[in-house]
Amino acid sequence: MKDDNLFTETSMSLGEHLEELRKCFFNSLYWIVAGTVVGFCVGNSIVDYIQVPVKRSLSKYHLQQSNNWLESETQKLESEGYSQEIISVVDKYQMIPTEMYIFPGEFERFRQRQTLQHSGTSNPVYDLNEVDNLTPQKNKLKRKQEEILGTVYDSVHLDEQPIRMLFFTKITNDPKTRTKSLGVYEAFSMYLKASLVFGLVISSPFVAGHLWSFIAAGLYPHEKKYVYYFIPVSVILFIGGALFAFFFVFQFVLDFLFSFNAKMNIDPDPRISEWVGFALMLPIGFGVSFQLPLVMFVLERVGIFTFRQYLSSWRISILAIFVLALFLTPGDPGSMLLMAIPLTVLYFGGVFFCWLIPRKKGLFDN
Hints:
Blueprint: H1 14-41, H2 43-50, H3 52-72, H4 74-79, H5 89-93, E1 95-102, H6 104-118, H7 135-153, E2 163-170, H8 186-216, H9 225-264, H10 272-289, H11 292-301, H12 307-312, H13 314-328, H14 333-356
Antiparallel strand pairs: 1-2
Helix pairs in contact: 1-8, 2-8, 3-9, 8-9, 8-10, 9-10, 9-14, 11-14, 13-14
């Protein structure tokens, strides 16, 4: 007669369970340390790369603000001699303007002085140290130089109205599109944080493998095979959630936040510590939340919930997902929907898995 006790092949004592836990912990720790070492080697590149979304949003913000300013100043600029096409410089060349003022007399003085110093034909300025061998002419040359420069100095007229001039800078070279560091240790601490998080991410597949191997030790023999499916699915969901946050969610979040800067006329000047902390934690939050189907499947396996309960309470579950997304995102409708909609799809994916692989009767059944 077949033995009905499904634990016969996998029964483990408490000591054996603790030993399995110890092995799982230290093996996971080894992978995390190895991943962190790799993170330290590429820490600078990581910090540079995770600044790409905020730099892109800052560039978009300042280009739009420059466009708005040029459009509002069109009539004044035309009256000052600028062409109407100056407005197209922002979009056409991705350049932003900076206002500067100069006094006409001072500009003429500067221009003439440069002409005298760099021209070898008309009105040259002699280097008196180089004409020591022409002593009889030295005093004459000195008087001639003083006469020329004196004419230039006399051209200064500070009582004239300064002229407004526009100087354009490539948006990629403008300091306003860069994050700032306010403390001497801030950049180094961000390097450490980025390296540690990167080490956790790249070691997560191996850590997940050891974690699931520990869980498998307590499963029924016919359920152990699920572990081999869970590990790759768990890794794919985690990485997929992190990439989804980085490449899709960040842009909506930043555009939403910077829109308030535009409305209140406050230019953003983000700190590197604030941005890196946000840029590292939000993808991890998405990666963990994307494990929802596996969590649902495990809870169904152990008998806490059933397939029919998942299906009948889908309305309450979706409401809970939207509330969770509201707290895990900055709160704008765009980013909240970008988290809630994928989680809703994953919820029904979990329901589908529970239906596709029905649970056999076991310990938790009557």
